[in-house]
Amino acid sequence: MKIIDGKTICAEVKSEIAAEIAQIIDSGQRAPHMAAILVGHDGASETYVASKDKNCKAVGMTSSLYRYEDNVSEKELLEVINFLNNDDEVDGYIVQLPLPKHIDADKVMAAVNPDKDIDGFSPSNLGKLVMGEDTFIPATPCGIMELIRRAGIETVGKNCVVLGRSNIVGTPMALLLSRNKPDANATVTLCHSKTQDLAEITRRADILVAAIGKPGFVKADMVKEGAVVIDVGIHRIADESQPNGFRIMGDVDFPAVSKKCSAITPVPGGVGAMTIAALLMNTMKAYHKRFPKK
Ligand code: NAP
User: What is the pLDDT of residues 120-169, one digit of tens each?
Assistant: First the structure.
């Protein structure tokens, strides 16, 4: 059984980006710049945005943060979006979700300039993804596709089952795996909470992607012998045996499933690491839209 090491692959991607940025700066151009809008003090969002900032700096990218309290008005947010859309110094930015309930997240995402939408959540970029056009792919599915490519996992003609149909993970994942491309071309089944005989479907998967948001949900009897398992879930589980009082686990029962599959992503150190790598890749893509590669 092979562990698909997201941390090592993320480090590879980052070192390639760092080398490219060093060359860009040597040539006298400014560094690529990623910005983030963060509203409120949600712990997971704070951690993600801090990690984004650290990773930007590690590769030589400029990083900036626009912070607002929970009571920010929709108008104020739309104003900063308009500012970032028109700021020539910013190549791409994210609006960290979730937003407070009084703000219409769909309206906010629709206001993001599609050429700076490095999360790929704007309706026009999601539409392009459906059409198979070149676009910004949402960071988590983008990172998973990069992980699959770099880990040398064959997808052509394989049966893939994606558990979960969210707009940020499951649905784009299913679209990407089924595209008519040499690194995709899989036959994909997309499952959700109303799917019947789920285990019967997952047992047919050569590649199983679990993105349902339920800790340890995928058990060994749901997995085919020799399957590749991609665990997208991230959960903080109370555990007094750990120094910090918790452990991180995914949507897959790792100890049991890892004995049965041919390859699996660990949690942490699998998909999560690649999500940040993908965001850096998308920022480079946004930069090159403005400053084409010579
Ligand atoms: P989500 O929006 O809550 O979607 C969950 C999906 O799972 C829904 O489509 C839901 O079906 C389906 N589902 C729930 N229970 C099910 C069941 N019993 N059987 C079959 N399907 C079921 O979650 P998400 O945002 O996609 O995130 C999924 C997981 O990935 C979470 O653990 C999240 O923390 C993690 N995540 C990780 C990263 C990363 O960087 N590693 C990034 C994003 C998310 P319905 O549509 O019918 O409700």
Answer: 999 999 999 999 999 999 999 999 999 999 999 999 999 999 999 999 99
Distance (angstroms) between ligand 1 centre and the Cα of 197 equals 18
Q: From residue 19, give the alpha-carbon distance in Å to each of 77, 179, 195.
A: 35, 31, 46
Closest residue by CA, ligand 1 atom 40:
272
In a domain, 22, yes or no: no
The whole-angstrom distance between residue 278's C-alpha and the CA centroid of its chain comes to: 6
The per-residue pLDDT for 43 is 87
Q: Considering its fold, how many domains does the chain have in total?
A: 2
Q: Tell me how far the alpha carbon of residue 90 lies from the centroid of ligand 1, in angstroms.
A: 31
Evaluate whether residue 88 is within a structural domain: yes
Give the model's confidence band at 44: pLDDT under 50 very low, under 70 low, under 90 confident, else very high: confident
Q: Which of 137, 212, 254, 267 for a ligand 1 pocket mutation test, highest count of atoms within 8 Å of Cβ?
A: 212
Domain shared by 64 and 190, yes or no: no
Q: Which residues make beta-bridge pairs with 108?
A: none
Ligand 1 site-directed mutation target among 94, 147, 175, 192, most atoms within 8 Å of CB? 192
The rounded distance, in Å, linking the Cα atoms of 102 and 111 is 17
75-94 confidence digits (pLDDT tens): 999 999 999 999 999 999 99
Q: What is the CATH number of the domain that holds 31?
A: 3.40.50.10860
Question: Is residue 3 a part of any domain in this protein?
Answer: no
Question: What is the predicted pLDDT for the residue at 294?
Answer: 74
Residue owning tokens 């993001």: 112
CA nearest 280: which of 81, 24, 112, 32?
A: 32
Encode pLDDT of 271-280 as tens digits. Answer: 999 999 999 9
Does the C-beta of 190 come closer than 6 Å to ligand 1?
Answer: no
47 and 143 part of one domain: no
Ligand 1 closest atom vs CA 195:
20
Q: Is the CB of 124 under 6 A from ligand 1?
A: no
The boundaries of the domain holding residue 47 are 27-113
CATH at 168: 3.40.50.720
Residue 195 forms part of a structural domain: yes
